[in-house]
């Protein structure tokens, strides 16, 4: 699959899964617009993509906890392109702790703001650019923590709350945007093995039935979904956790 005719925005692409996804999309020819909380982190991923031969990559700072930062990011993107084809809502702060009292009020606010409010505001502000595409897709990386009744993660209650907010938002958005041709696709992975796409273990990570889910497989799910004909609306990917 080639993505030479796709312009993709990836939030929180300075490290971990967002970085891996941005690199793979660029390897397939997409124009990639990436953000990170700091410009330095975004530029680091941009430079790695440049070094692999794709000059069509742009880096911006975007703090998903700050509405003004989100607005400024979208304004900068609008100066770069007249439309986007895919928005990947990848940004959400991880917060660990099974005791509600173990973290500060500021940590809770930051976690909810980045995962819940940040996702909603980024989607709202990028929607006009998506509606100018003939193949608009919104991808949101949620988590098994966003599933009703899930309790296997050691994430803090605030992280669970942010992920459930994302799940509720994408559920209703999928129905309301379908008449406009926008596909809203959510992924609910458990903890997964996040290999570095520029390291040898990217090609050697075990991917058998008893192994943890890998970032490679998650990326392949995303590529599969956006590669389907426009009558195929895949609403979500759910994954079994290893026994």
Automatic annotation (TrEMBL):
<keyword id="KW-0560">Oxidoreductase</keyword>
<dbReference type="GO" id="GO:0016616">
    <property type="term" value="F:oxidoreductase activity, acting on the CH-OH group of donors, NAD or NADP as acceptor"/>
</dbReference>
<comment type="similarity">
    <text>Belongs to the short-chain dehydrogenases/reductases (SDR) family.</text>
</comment>
<dbReference type="InterPro" id="IPR002347">
    <property type="entry name" value="SDR_fam"/>
</dbReference>
<dbReference type="Pfam" id="PF00106">
    <property type="entry name" value="adh_short"/>
</dbReference>
<dbReference type="InterPro" id="IPR036291">
    <property type="entry name" value="NAD(P)-bd_dom_sf"/>
</dbReference>
<protein>
    <submittedName>
        <fullName>SDR family oxidoreductase</fullName>
    </submittedName>
</protein>
